[in-house]
Amino acid sequence: MDELEQWRIQLQQWSRQGAEWFHQMPETQLYAAIAVVFVTTFFLLSIRLFKRTKSNTVVLTGLSGSGKTTLFYQLQDGSSHLGTVTSMDPNEGTFVLHSEIAKKGKIKPVHVVDVPGHSRLRPKLDEFLPQAAGIVFVVDALEFLPNCRAASEYLYDILTKSSVVKKKIPVLILCNKTDKVTAHTKEFIRKQLEKEIEKFRASRSAISAADVVNEFTLGVPGEAFGFSQCHNKVTVADASGLTGEISQLEEFIREYVKP
Amino acid sequence: MLEQLLIFTRGGLILWTCKELGNALKGSPIDTLIRSCLLEERSGAASYNYDAPGAAYTLKWTFHNELGLVFVAVYQRILHLLYVDDLLAMLKREFSVIYDPKRTAYDDFDETFRQLRMEAEARAEELKKSKPVAKPVNNSKKQGQVQKVGFEGGNKKKGGSGPGSDGGDGNGRKMENGHANGNTDETKVALVANGKENASSNIGAFDVNKLQKLRAKGGKKTDTVVNKGSKVDPNKKITKKNRVWDVSPTESKLDFTDPADQNGDENAVIVAADEGESMMDKEEIVSSESETEEDEEMEKDSKMETKKKGWFSAMFQSIAGKANLEKADLEPALKALKDRLMTKNVAEEIAEKLCESVAASLEGKKLASFTRVSSTVQAAMEEALVRILTPRRSIDILRDVHAAKEQRKPYVVVFVGVNGVGKSTNLAKVAYWLLQHNVSVMMAACDTFRSGAVEQLRTHARRLQIPIFEKGYEKDPAIVAKEAIQEATRNGSDVVLVDTAGRMQDNEPLMRALSKLVNLNNPDLVLFVGEALVGNDAVDQLSKFNQKLADLSTSPKPQLIDGILLTKFDTIDDKVGAALSMVYISGAPVMFVGCGQSYTDLKKLNVKSIVKTLLK
């Protein structure tokens, strides 16, 4: 307590000295100083705004167990380490892709976010979507059919989010685990997802009167749904997180986050 | 023996796993633990039981919140490994020293782990041995406590768990005892004590913790002194320690740990730290408690007398950011939050568990600058609430109805609940909503018990112009429902809404009838209708309904409550806690909210507004 008292007295002294010094200064200098302060703050703010417009964030999303965290570490370190378990928090990292480390010259790092896929943690996705330059929707190609409906519902939710539609954020549907023999092909997965989303479109447009979460509807009314009808670009690619076959994913990232 | 030991980040990357133990686990206990326990805000519990075909594991875990690490140990359920908690704590301490967020491989940790494990095992052995040898006064005192705990456990056990597993456990324990005890005289006593402990450790690991504390107390005579005066007498400690070491044959093993610490500290200090772990903790807590008390007092002073000093220090603290949060720091804020939740009609049990889980997730975290403890706690609670209320499964019923339609099967919804919560009224509302979306609906009047129930439903059916299946009163509702579903399949109805009689959760015959109805007809959706007015009883209602549906089911995968319909939501103003209690206890989402008297008064739950109201 005594120490605090001393501190207080010390501070008061300093403030008094400062005020005296302030009065001695000529006015022009004061104005100049204020102007300098204003200009710098404006400059810094504008830099920040400018930076925002050119985002370098790529969001990895998809159902739990589809291999997002493995892909994240493949991108960052080029290895899946000892393996992964269900994520409880998002993984974030700003780094130069592992495959590009050897390259010369200055490469712009990518901010990759791996959002947990557990349905209880879905609200976290909304935090990252507004700043995303690209969304990677990871699908488990091995265990696709049992999870097909859940996956397409999640994808539907993402594709109808206002932040995604308005900014036309490109979406990559990444079929993971294709190193396994019994994995489905990406064409099959694309068709199945389109079919499921078509069904969702019917039920969701009916529900929208009661629920105002999805303001946007997908596709063209009266036509079968296809990903080509989306306002934003939706592409499909293969990958294998475990063996490190992620060239198509890296291509996608580099297409929207220029090196 | 331990089956597996893992260290991973909250992000999901496994940092280290014990290679020696490299047993392949059956099923995926770790993922199940995370999904159904840690993410459901149940991390306040102390252990989790995992069941898979051919495997029964118990999992224990501990968090390092500041670094975002999770330590999980897996072992066979039948073995009651007492040293696991100890081992995890030591592991946490040692690993946090070498942890570096950039590093992802910790091969060199193997050696440290081996030593820690030996140490922990030795200590467990030690405690077992030292128990009968301890002084009589001490012993009887301890036993009294143990017996008390055991008694509680016994009582609880009568209510719940089955006898099958119990017997197995008892055997295992006896065997352990057999080789732990040298003296035949005391074996008997120890056996009795152990048997009781066993009962208590069965009901939950909270008691296991308690027991370990008790055991620690039994081992250390000076403990009470330490508790009262926070001063530790080093001489006493060392002599006491020596006594313990002399008895044990594992001294060399324990000495072995000194190089492992690698801190280059004095030998004595390390030795003291090894044995007196709990004391150290206690001392720290005591001191910090007194500090926080001071702080609080200061805050109060500043409020009352508007002293500048208090304001200044509070300001300084908030700017600098406090060092790691401790349980004592969190307690006042958590208590306030719990009270607030309870005023919003959240069941007390639920509020308690939630606060424990939030405390577990915050303990050890650094408080960011410019924040207060209360706001940090509030933010954590908000996150937890959003997570709980966000549905785990799809609540898009229309989608499911369409899927069932494709398979040419009617989609069957059974409405269950206690008396007078509004099952029939809300059934009519759901029917109206479905009709609006071009789904053909049929009602089944399976309330064959209450007079006028069938007529009530018939009135609704006439107003909505939908078919109703009825067989009058005094019939078996399960059969009526079955016939109704057959009828619906014949005439091509998409949805069958089954109304059941209201029943109290304790009414055994009626619950049996309900279970029969559900099991016989295998409905697509069992909707629990509960009123939003309910308080603490919500927990009892839902858990008993679920319990009965599970217990009285014949199939290995019993159908439980899939969703909740919350009625009378317009009558409760801001006391929305029932929604939280129900969702937490059952894990099922709130699918509809009834909020008025007309057919149109059916809404969806708005998670954000509920959370906002709860924390207001």
Automatic annotation (TrEMBL), chain A:
Protein localization: Endoplasmic reticulum membrane
Keywords on record: Endoplasmic reticulum, ER-Golgi transport, GTP-binding, Lipoprotein, Membrane, Myristate, Nucleotide-binding, Protein transport, Receptor, Transmembrane, Transmembrane helix, Transport
GO molecular function: GTP binding
Transmembrane segments: 30-50
Single Gene Ontology BP annotation: protein transport
CDD domains: SR_beta
Membrane topology: Single-pass membrane protein
Statement: the UniProt record of this protein carries the keyword Transport: yes
UniProt-listed Pfam families: SRPRB
GO cellular component: signal recognition particle receptor complex
InterPro entries the record matches: P-loop_NTPase, Small_GTPase_ARF, SRP_receptor_beta_su
Entry similarity comment: Belongs to the SRP receptor beta subunit family.
Entry protein name: Signal recognition particle receptor subunit beta
Organism: Vitis vinifera (Grape)
UniProtKB/TrEMBL annotation, chain B:
PROSITE patterns assigned: SRP54
Topology in the lipid bilayer: Peripheral membrane protein
Domain of life the protein comes from: Eukaryota
SUPFAM superfamilies found in the cross-reference section: Domain of the SRP/SRP receptor G-proteins, P-loop containing nucleoside triphosphate hydrolases, SNARE-like
Subcellular location: Endoplasmic reticulum membrane
Skewed-composition ranges (Acidic residues): 290-299
Cellular component terms (Gene Ontology): endoplasmic reticulum membrane; signal recognition particle receptor complex
Biased composition regions of type Polar residues, renumbered to the chain: 137-146
InterPro entries from the UniProt entry: AAA+_ATPase (IPR003593), Longin-like_dom_sf (IPR011012), P-loop_NTPase (IPR027417), Sig_recog_particle_rcpt_asu_N (IPR007222), Signal_recog_particl_SRP54_hlx (IPR013822), SRP/SRP_N (IPR036225), SRP54_GTPase_dom (IPR000897), SRP54_N_sf (IPR042101)
GO MF annotation terms: GTP binding; GTPase activity; signal recognition particle binding
Compositional bias per record (Gly residues), positions renumbered to this chain: 160-170
Region of interest (Disordered), ranges: 126-184, 280-306
Record domain SRP54-type proteins GTP-binding: where: 589-602
One protein family per Pfam: SRP54
One GO biological process term: SRP-dependent cotranslational protein targeting to membrane
Keyword vocabulary terms for this entry: Endoplasmic reticulum, GTP-binding, Membrane, Nucleotide-binding, Receptor
Keyword Secreted: no
Family: Belongs to the GTP-binding SRP family.
Xref: PANTHER family: SIGNAL RECOGNITION PARTICLE RECEPTOR SUBUNIT ALPHA (PTHR43134:SF1)
Name this polypeptide is given: SRP54-type proteins GTP-binding domain-containing protein
Protein species of origin: Vitis vinifera (Grape)
